[in-house]
Amino acid sequence: MDKHDRHYSTPNTALAAYLLTEGFTLLSITTSPNPKVIGGIEAVFTFQDDPHLLDCVRLWQTGQAEGNLIVFFGNYKRFLGEVKRATRRETA
Length: 92
Hints:
By secondary structure, this protein is an alpha+beta fold. It has one domain (3-91). The protein has three helices and three strands, in the order βαββαα. It has helices at residues 13-21, 53-61, 69-91; strands at residues 7-10, 26-33, 41-48. Strands 1-3-2 form a three-stranded antiparallel beta sheet. α1 (13-21) packs across α3 (69-91). The longest helix is centred in the last third of the chain and has 23 residues, at 69-91. The chain is globular and about 40 Å long. The N and C termini lie far apart (39 Å).
């Protein structure tokens, strides 16, 4: 795989908001039906690979993440809204 084609994907909305807050490039948000998740729609957030991305993921997973909480919360609300709109489209 070409280095420029790599990416990191996560279904974790809060982690995705943190990564966006830290300046990583969001490539896409893909939604699909999944009866095992609340609302029946699963979102997967895909980011451009970066040498520091996995370090930030580890900080998040170990509760050591720091950053601008106002920007994080805005990104988190934006992502929740996008998932909610996708849920409405799927159930309409």
